[in-house]
Amino acid sequence: MDQVTVASSVRFITSFTGIFFEPVIGPARPGDIVHSQAAIDLARSALGYEPVVPFYEGISRTVAWYVETAGQLTTKPDRSPAPGA
Questions:
Q1: Cα gap 72→45, rounded to integer Å
Q2: Domains in the chain: boundaries
Q3: pTM for the whole thing?
Q4: pLDDT tens-digit profile of 45-71?
């Protein structure tokens, strides 16, 4: 699997949206995680999960859905805490 950086993801998303900006990336701070990679081994073995959509294709589908749907959204999602939380 190819590694995907936050910066490359931002560039990819902005190429679809036409909203360009330069992320501000400062030096690493003590305790920062420099590289992280999700592992799906447990989901694969326990559930038989296997990704079928590559990362960037999934991002492009998500952006297309959002652009198509954004004008249809009339209410904001409820962000209040769940009862008993």
A1: 39
A2: 1-21+37-54
A3: 0.59
A4: 999 999 999 888 998 898 888 878 876
